[in-house]
């Protein structure tokens, strides 16, 4: 595809850490993709001023603003938006409707979350061999956007229970729904 055909958009809010913003800019620099920043804080403040949202509605607003922003840029410039959801998240509905579920194509939609991590580790090893990798994302502590779900695991705020559940999947599933490895949590995975 080529880096010149990839467009990255950083959409920070007042809750975005300098570390997160720096990681995005550094990744764009190392890979050579097109990159820009479109702050969503003014949009967020306008919604909050008009509607006074709280709780889950406030938490999901940032994701929805990002989805709307990406679709507006896509319509204006003729790009397609790639949806970031993986098979584990899609299977249990772990996404924000009109937020991170937005996209014309999901490149990892058929890849389980455990495999996404393995693919990232494989890709990072290859990049490290070329001197183009800086380990940061998987080794740092959760940001302010994340909070404990009460089970000793960290989770994004919009869905505490399901996130802990999907992060704890130690096995993979076959097309028939059978586990390929045993698990202590088998009873929680039954549909």
Short recap of the structure:
This protein has 191 residues and is mainly α. The chain is built from six helices and four strands. Helix 2 crosses helix 3.
Keywords, please?
two-stranded antiparallel sheet; globular; Rossmann fold; mainly alpha; two-stranded parallel sheet; 191 residues
From the 3D structure, determine the CATH topology. Answer: Rossmann fold
Over all CA atoms, what is the radius of gyration? 18 Å
In spatial order, strands of the major sheet run: 1-2
Summing up helix and strand content along with how strands pair, one would put the structural category as mainly alpha
Overall geometry comes to: globular
Largest sheet geometry: 2 strands, parallel
Beta-strand share of residues:
5-15%
Architecture per CATH nomenclature, i.e. the level-2 architecture: 3-Layer(aba) Sandwich
Helix content: 40-55%
Question: Count of DSSP E strands?
Answer: 4
Number of structural units classed as domains:
1
Written as H for each helix and E for each strand, in order along the chain, the element string is EHEHHHHEEH
Nearest-integer average pLDDT: 78
Poorly predicted runs are 141-178, 182-191
**Count of helical segments?**
6
